[in-house]
Amino acid sequence: MPAKIPATVVTGFLGAGKTTLIRHMLQNAEGKRIALIINEFGDLGVDGDILKGCGAETCTEDDIMELSNGCICCTVAEDFIPTMEKLLARENRPDHIVIETSGLALPQPLVRAFNWPGISTRVTVDGVVTVVDGKAVTEGRFAHNVAAVDAQRAMDENLDHETPLSELFEDQIACADMIVVNKTDLLTAEEAEALVSRLKNESRDGVQVVRASMGALPVDVLLGQGIGAENDLEARHEVHHHHHHDDDEDDDHDDDDHPHDHGHDEFESFVVTRGEITDPKGFADRVAAIIRDHDILRLKGFVAVEGKPMRLTLQAVGPRVETYFDQPFGAQPRQTRLVVIGEAGLDRAVIEEALRA
After folding, report:
1. What is the pLDDT of residues 174-231, one digit of tens each?
2. Handedness of CA 211, 37, 80, 249 (dihedral sign)
3. Are 152 and 42 in contact (CB under 8 A)?
4. 238 and 351 in a common domain
5. CA-CA distances (angstroms) from residue 42 to 39, 69, 75, 206, 354?
6. 310: domain range?
């Protein structure tokens, strides 16, 4: 049976910057063929037009599907499931599916839909990414433009929930595997640090909270979390049992007027090489501890184990470390080679010393 296609759910209020984040991802997809499902409604498909114009070879116009009948979590059976089935029926399967929800959407019902027959055997939720407008949340507004959120809610005839912004925000945080604090360039260092600390305290253990400006995240950070969120619904339960959201909607496009050539200054990566190890489990435990101590986002690579002809693949998302033997080293040198990815400011020397110990 073919491997399940990973899908990433991107949620967040109107103005948080979801579309900007996704467009940046497409422009830096590193060869991944990405299909998009965009939950948008109204007279103009603004998000779809923006993304179709991104010029990314790995996401053609045919790879973008729009759901324009209302909030995605209210139209799962009528809209989302048929769209997924149509996408999965294509001859050229995508490498990854990214779903941009309406900012009015509760993420939990959408994640739950991945357990539907016909979907559950073919797709898995790689992770739920909640994009936060750092400036608005710091100021207690949650959304950049609350009036615009209210206007969109009034347009959606299928919306069957009315929830205060604060409650919907809590539900989006409760479901998140990664929280992206966007627009940190509009905050002081102290404000950004305070908000990141607050969101870490309010989210589940193991949820990564990262900072970004203009949605610029490396694709290796955004995709490839391997969570399987549809199998973990109990941990991400809705804080408020409603099917009624309040004020909130899709991405704002203020960021889209700015150039995207700023790079990834907020992130850094480096490679650590070392010799063979003797205890795979002990090494994995040490890697998990190093990740926790240094707030590393991703750590991945291949490990040489003494006496084993096969190389050990190691992949870590936050403190969750997975290992498996995949193939013989062959002509490759028998060495351990690990890529470390994190926010700028990692103590490279200390991390290298710890991994080589």
Report:
1. 999 999 999 999 999 999 999 999 999 999 988 999 999 888 899 999 999 999 999 9
2. positive
3. yes
4. no
5. 11, 8, 15, 37, 54
6. 267-356
Domain boundary among 201, 231, 257: 257
Whose tokens are 């890529």? That residue is 339
- Sheet containing 5-12, strands listed edge to edge, beginning at the edge strand earlier in sequence: 64-67, 34-39, 96-100, 5-12, 123-133, 178-182, 208-211
318 shares a domain with 236:
no
pTM attached to this predicted model: 0.78
Q: Given CA atoms 141, 143, 148, 150 in this order, what sign does their dihedral have?
A: negative
Tokens 């200390």 correspond to 350
